[in-house]
Amino acid sequence: MFYYDTNGVLRGEIPVLYYRSHRLLFDDDGLMWFSASTHHMVGMNRLGKLEKILDLGSNYILHHDYAMDDDGNIVLLATELSRSDNAVQDQVIKLDTTTGSVTRLLDFGEMLADYKASTTHAGTDESDSTAKNRWDWLHCNTIQLLDDGSALFSARETSTIIKIDDLEGVPTLDYMIGEPSVWNGTKEVSTFLDKDGDFPDTGGQHSITYVADDSLPDGQYYLYIVRQQLRHRTDPPRFRLIGHRRHLHGILLRHRALAIPQVSGGRERRHLHGGLLVRRAVFPVCLLRAGA
Questions:
Q1: Res 131: pLDDT
Q2: Which of 157, 160, 124, 115 is nearest to 139 (CA)?
Q3: Which pTM value belongs to this model?
Q4: Which of 233-239's residues contact partners 24+ apart within 8 Å by CB, and which partners?
């Protein structure tokens, strides 16, 4: 893991066991948490000492993303290793940063069983190039925890964003954002927000970011979406860099989306508003917040 400042100057380096450190989390005790492998989450103090090294155990491995809840525990996207159906990247687990215990919060395969049953085994798993007969039917790659205990998930293989209520209690499906036709024939198709406006749909998105804004009416929020670019160009277009935000992984298209509950015609209607914000040039650097 490398630290770069906003000028692209290397400021630090932290070795990890393998895999990658996707996100830096900071708890109330001054520890910085990050993944050191698919099995390990570590808490580092300000002097660079690893005060906590926690193992997820033999039943789960991390995939992509994780977030810290209000209790200082870590909620992770995961693969369950003991599954007989070889499904991958469809579990949500919680790591207790005090005891080190791991509990499952949500099995998307159970919640979305009808859709899962309609998919086929592609036999691939991007986290293991040697894998055979893997069932990557959903491929969650981002989690965003909201203040009310709900969560947003990016499900790449379905080109869908999934909103789950009461994630750490009794999880239920609230709504989805994306192309409803992907879910035709399932009961979940009725949960999609209506799109209000002319803007591109999500498509193989690889990251989402939830942003609350007090200037918005109640029930509205911003959702930034990184669209996965699945093509190669030998003559990539040039774009002017705006500001000092720099991003990883190819040309970036970001969209602003608002999920808006509205009352219309005597019943609640939910709408999705959006618009293209900006194309940006891409640099292989990371950002650190001031004081982090």
A1: 61
A2: 157
A3: 0.77
A4: 237/279, 238/281, 239/279, 239/280, 239/281
